[in-house]
Each structure stands twice: as structure tokens, then as C-alpha cells.
């Protein structure tokens, strides 16, 4: 499933595409919200691994404005719940992820991204 926790780790890996290849931009997507139990400790521990600006911009592109523009110095339960929602409960079911550099499109079908490249696209 394409969740924003996964999306925040993905970059284009097409041949020669090594700059401005993150984050991939969602295009023509359908989204489902799937509630999950909050694991605040996991979310807090994962926080240093996130590319914050990319996460916030992607969430906003998908219609969620619950995260602050800047990462707060102090995190409370409300912040962790909002972050959990963005990372785990927003599921992109259909559409594509497009590289902002080379324009390569990675299709998403039934919640699964196809990150495979054709032979001529492998670097």
C-alpha cells in the first residue's frame, strides 16, 4: 500500500535521474482513509527519518492540512496523532507517482506502486 510513510522514502531511480528526484509527485490519485491504532512511540522514534517539508507538502497536495509547516521543537499527543494519521491512515489506492526531474511515472494499482523500470531505464 502506498502510505505517506513509504512515499517519504521513495525517489526516482531511473537511469541518470540523480537530482531533484524526490519527492515523487502524486497524479490522478484516489485515496482511502483507513483508521489504525496509534502507536505514539513508533511515530516519535520514526520522526528523525522523515523529510519533513516533503511530507507536509505531499499531505497538503492530498488535502490534509493537519501538520504544521515547520517541525515543532516539542511534540505532544495531538501532534503525534496528526502525524500518525498522515503517515499511516492515508492510503493512495490508484494513480501514479511522477518524478519532478525526469517525468518518469510509477503507476499505483490496488494500492501497490510499480517501481520496476524497463531495461533502457536502468542506471
From TrEMBL:
It comes from the Eukaryota. InterPro entries: Trm112, Trm112-like. It holds the Pfam family Trm112p. GO terms for molecular function: protein heterodimerization activity. GO terms for biological process: rRNA (guanine-N7)-methylation; tRNA methylation. Interacts with TRM9. Belongs to the TRM112 family. This is Multifunctional methyltransferase subunit TRM112-like protein.
Amino acid at each position: 500500500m502506498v502510505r505517506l510513510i513509504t512515499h517519504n522514502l521513495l525517489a526516482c531511480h531511473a537511469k541518470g535521474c540523480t537530482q531533484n528526484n524526490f519527492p515523487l509527485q502524486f497524479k490522478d490519485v484516489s485515496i482511502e482513509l483507513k483508521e489504525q491504532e496509534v502507536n505514539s512511540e513508533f511515530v516519535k522514534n520514526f520522526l528523525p527519518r522523515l523529510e519533513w517539508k516533503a511530507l507536509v507538502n505531499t499531505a497538503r497536495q492530498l488535502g490534509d492540512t493537519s501538520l504544521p509547516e515547520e517541525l515543532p521543537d516539542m511534540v505532544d499527543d495531538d501532534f503525534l496523532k496528526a502525524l500518525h494519521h498522515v503517515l499511516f491512515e492515508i492510503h493512495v489506492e490508484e494513480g501514479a507517482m511522477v518524478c519532478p526531474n525526469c517525468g518518469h511515472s510509477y503507476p499505483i494499482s490496488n494500492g501497490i506502486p510499480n517501481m520496476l523500470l524497463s531495461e533502457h531505464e536502468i542506471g
